[in-house]
Design brief:
The complex is a heterodimer of chains A (311) and B (365). Chain A is mainly α and 311 residues long. Chain A has one domain (2-120, 150-291): ABC transporter involved in vitamin B12 uptake, BtuC (Orthogonal Bundle). Chain A contains twelve helices and two strands, in the order H-H-H-H-E-H-E-H-H-H-H-H-H-H. Chain A has helices at 7-36, 44-62, 65-89, 94-117, 141-145, 150-168, 170-180, 182-187, 192-219, 230-240, 245-267, 274-291, and strands at 130-131, 147-148. A two-stranded antiparallel ribbon of chain A has the order 1-2. In chain A, helix 1 (7-36) runs parallel beside helix 6, helix 1 packs antiparallel against helix 11 (245-267) and helix 2 (44-62) crosses helix 9. With 365 residues, chain B is mainly alpha-helical. Chain B folds into two domains: 1-53 and 333-365, no CATH class; 79-330, Orthogonal Bundle (ABC transporter involved in vitamin B12 uptake, BtuC), CATH 1.10.3470. Chain B has helices spanning 14-19, 24-50, 55-68, 70-95, 103-121, 127-145, 147-156, 160-182, 213-230, 232-242, 244-249, 254-281, 292-302, 307-330, 337-364. Chain B starts with 13 loop residues before the first helix and ends with a helix. The chains are: A mainly alpha (311), B mainly alpha (365). At the A-B interface, helix 4, helix 10 and helix 12 of A face helix 7, helix 8, helix 13 and helix 15 of B.
Chain lengths: 311, 365
Amino acid sequence: MNALLTEPFLVSLLFGAVTAGLPLLLAGLGEQISEKAGVLNIGLEGMMLVGAYTGFLATYHTGSFWLGFLAGGAGGMAAALIVLFLCIRKGLNQIVIGIAITVGAQGLTSLLHFVQFSRSYPRLPAAPILALPLLRDIPVLGKGLFSHNALVYLGTLLVVVLTWVFRSTYLGLSLEAAGNKPAALDAAGVDVIRTRSVAVLCTGFLAGLGGAYMANVGAGLFVPFITGGAGVIGIVLAMLARGRPLWVLIGAALFGASLAMTTALQVAGIDVPTDVVQMLPFAVVMLVLVIFARNSMLPPALGSPYVRGER
Amino acid sequence: MTGQGTTSDGVATEGVATEGAAGAGFAATLLRVLIPVVLALVAGGLILLALGKDPMGYYGYVLQRSLLRWGGFQETLTRMAPLLLIAAGLIVAFRAGLWNLGGDGQFLLAAVASAALAPALSAWLPRGPNLIVCMLVGSLVGALWSLIPALLKARYGVNEIITTLMMSFLGTSLANVMIKLVLRDPDTTVPQTRSLPVDDRLPRLFGTTIHWGLLLAILAVVLVHLMMTRTAFGLRLQVLGANRAAAIHAGLRVERLTLGAFALSAGLIGLGGAVEVLGVWGTVRADWNPALGLLVVPLVFLARFNGYAVMGFTLFFSALMVGGESAARRVGVPQHYVLVLVALLLLFLALVEYLDQTRRKLKGA
């Protein structure tokens, strides 16, 4: 048992939890914006994957991690454009298009990667780390939490920003109205289609950013299907959080910690099947749902297109 | 708003098309499917050209391999069995307005359960009863795995998309844990369940390589379609799917219907897992996850929850998978290309559907 309390174990657990949790956080926050505005974005996984690919490619060719993040965000936004045109503007089924985006992204990124790199998987250099002054000197926490790529701190800051946007800005109010009663928003003179479009583009950017972080910082390379269900977890987190960014952060930390647990346990020399540990967060959430069963309170207009004048 | 009969130029309106009527309606439906297929193939071909491959060569090879050659055609049909059973399960849930997106977990756990049970029981039971028991257990396991989402939805209205997705993750991990820790065959290096001898698997159909699971799957799809469109139970489920509040006001027992629809849906998906294992593999390896659940969802949507139309889409998809896998080795186009093609097909089908509807609306107005 003592092996679990050593510094290397705790540091690797914390560090891994943050590294694995950040993509979930970014994607979950992105999905939250969409869902608030009434768009069920099932293609989140695909947007992450496109972001992971474009982000990796940009960093691989330019050597700049910031350009990689930007390219990842842009890639995710490009995938989000499909949702924008087909689902928001044309009112096509969001679940069908979402699955098309995920399946298409899986196929296209794998195909393009194969054409460019065949079966080799070039590695990127280690990502730059920004250790926060003072905080970095705290034992265990300093190395585990405060010595990360700068995107980690920006992502955490985003939780605060989004909480403020949702709670006390006009934009936040519009987003909420677009999901709860789009007709009322329309009557108030705000363009529902435009509000939802902005929301989905934000989602695409954040999901792509999360994917790029996953490939460039987390793994240091791109392999086909690298996101491996992170987008689905992001959707679950957003739904469970009921519109509150802080809950996405808590959820992302929980899932990130359990993903990191397996590697950390190996560092400590304890052999537990990865599957058992990976079941933990899902089991916990299901248990919570069973005990405190209640409605997840999704926006009433979630998933339905808005057509002016139609009831 | 909704269509009545056919418009002047003989294009079927919504009500007719969903029931798959003969004549003009059928022709229009066929056209509505063929146009997107052609568009998807053309767009996919352009991608192949851009990658420096020969599209005609690729398509020709896939077509020949999966449909024109007898061996490949049998493989395509065999591959359809689990897809059809999953589709049948999804039709029940989707028509009842329940988003059962946890198919992968239900499928895998049922596969593992039947894979573990079949070799153990084969010492006691003759082949036929053994297979039947294992398939029943598979369906039961699948149905049980949907019980918590079903109860949460029925009692408390908890969104089933989250719960089924989470149970799916849990199920895939649990299946691996069971194989690695409990059901592992001690004689193999790769963790897998004890293999069921070929003689004890599902019998082949009339001297082909296709197993009986295909007939079972076709039967299931037809029965589900008839149940949903022709029986009182099906009508109740449709009402539930169309408007939950209306169903409650009409005095339907919504809780029971929800539980029933979930059990039936997950049970059929579980049967799919059992059939795939008992008919093809005879064992389940750790980390095996065909992840068919998500891929079948769009097929069911495109078929507009119509059982007969689903068969066509499944055949097409199955042929693509079989041909694509082989083409990856022979023509040098990675198998992932099939995913691109499926995505293009989805986009074009949705687009054509949209254009068709706007055209009809403009005419109606």
